[in-house]
Amino acid sequence: MRIPLDSDRKAQQVLRVCDKYQLKRAADRIHRQLGRQKWQRGRLGAAIGHFAQVSDRGSIGQICDQLWDQYLQSGKLTYGPIIDSVVASGLKHDRLQFLMRYRDFHECYKAGEFVEAGRILLSILLSEIAPQYAVADLLIDAIPLLEGDALVFGPDDTFELMRCAETLVQSPFPIKGTSAASGAVDKSELSIFNVACARNLARSFVSFPAE
Predict the structure, then answer these.
(1) Mean per-residue pLDDT for 70-90?
(2) What is the pTM of this model?
(3) What spatial distance separates the first Cα and last Cα of the chain, rounded to whole Å?
């Protein structure tokens, strides 16, 4: 017999019964069902919480991908409260860590803290917590920091950015004339990125001469 979980209160009552009688398999099924329900209703933080209970890292990753796509489409970074509520529970996941660190980068950039923003952006790339499809977007984010008045990236940092770009070019993602989707490498933007790196190298060698 299946009990319809048509309210959060009823669901919690059933989960308490499962916990009391150590019905783990039943509890896992309920958490998966509730996770799917919350996901369909747009309650992404709650959905992640339920999927975390059953270690469903695949579904958590898909929700994080959805949050990133929403940011790319709207240009508005609004997932902060969702991520904060989930991370506060102690859940660890590379996709969540990526979204958190990118939010930190975004906030530093908006506040004009460009050196710190650059440090965070480079750390995201080098730690490889970013999904491969997001690397192109991160490199494009580096362009205004490379071209800005303040010297954000030294020679070593700039070489690391160029290495990330080269790795991306050699990845399965195609190079396109125009951006069509997250993960696609825009040929014109990549050219701009390479020129920005070259210019930044030239002035960084003046500011940081080799010993």
Answers:
(1) 87
(2) 0.85
(3) 76
